[in-house]
Amino acid sequence: MKATEVPEIAGAYLFEPTPYTDERGFFCRTFDADVVRSVGLDPDAFVQDSLSRSVRGVLRGLHLRSGAGEAKLVRCSYGRIFDVVVDLRPDSPTYRNWASFELTGETQPTLYIPAGCAHGFQALTDTADTSYRIDRPHDPAEDVTIAFDDPELAIPWPLPVALMSQRDREAPSLAEVLKHRES
């Protein structure tokens, strides 16, 4: 497994496993505490694992947590997703940058998203399972959502949106969220 820094988002990493493939399919390690530790992260900091299943075109996000935020490891365990990270840490050298990745169940890469970054994804396959390893227990009172189609971000989502939650459909703009965070 190798770790690669994400240049567009300070402190973000892409962990790429080495799948062992044969006629049965494949086997790979999707988490390695030593590799996580090698880039300065505490592997014991992750306290909650979650899984979402989405159908093609479903868009989830852009989500982040207020307060101390939440760091997470995200992996598409089955199918393919278009995954997006937006740096919303005012003191970060990559503040307001965003980066996108195609995460697939075929190659099993894991994306580390630092606390203070927004995250969203769109399912590209009929079924897409997305796994999350999160460093804090979820508190719905800290949930923040940003409009997926915010013109300032201009994220080129690859498919028309098939479904999304009401919360995501009604999300405020990035400018509104940042204004609220500053007050």
Topology, element by element:
Elements: E1 2-5, E2 13-16, E3 20-22, E4 25-27, H1 33-38, E5 48-54, E6 59-65, E7 72-78, E8 80-87, E9 98-104, E10 110-113, E11 117-123, E12 128-134, E13 143-145, H2 166-169, H3 174-182
Antiparallel strand pairs: 1-2, 2-10, 3-4, 5-12, 6-11, 6-13, 7-10, 7-12, 8-9, 8-11
Function: Catalyzes the epimerization of the C3' and C5'positions of dTDP-6-deoxy-D-xylo-4-hexulose, forming dTDP-6-deoxy-L-lyxo-4-hexulose.
Protein name: dTDP-4-dehydrorhamnose 3,5-epimerase
Keywords: Isomerase
Rounded to the nearest angstrom, the distance between the terminal CA atoms is: 43 Å
Q: Structural class given helices, strands, pairing?
A: mainly beta
Q: Taking all residues together, what is the mean pLDDT? A: 95
**What global shape is seen?**
globular
Which regions are unreliable across 5 or more consecutive residues at pLDDT < 50?
A: none
Order of helices and strands: EEEEHEEEEEEEEEHH
Question: How would you sum up this structure in a few lines?
Answer:
One of its GO terms (molecular function) is dTDP-4-dehydrorhamnose 3,5-epimerase activity. This protein is mainly β.
Question: Any overview of this molecule?
Answer:
This protein has 183 residues and is mainly beta. Helix content is 10%, strand content 39%. It has three helices and 13 strands; from the N terminus they run ββββαβββββββββαα. The protein has helices at residues 33-38, 166-169, 174-182, and strands at residues 2-5, 13-16, 20-22, 25-27, 48-54, 59-65, 72-78, 80-87, 98-104, 110-113, 117-123, 128-134, 143-145. A six-stranded antiparallel β-sheet has the order 1-2-10-7-12-5, with no helix packed on it. A five-stranded antiparallel β-sheet has the order 9-8-11-6-13, with no helix packed on it. Strands 3-4 form a two-stranded antiparallel ribbon. Strand 3 and strand 4 form a beta hairpin. It starts with a strand and ends with a helix. The mean pLDDT is 95.
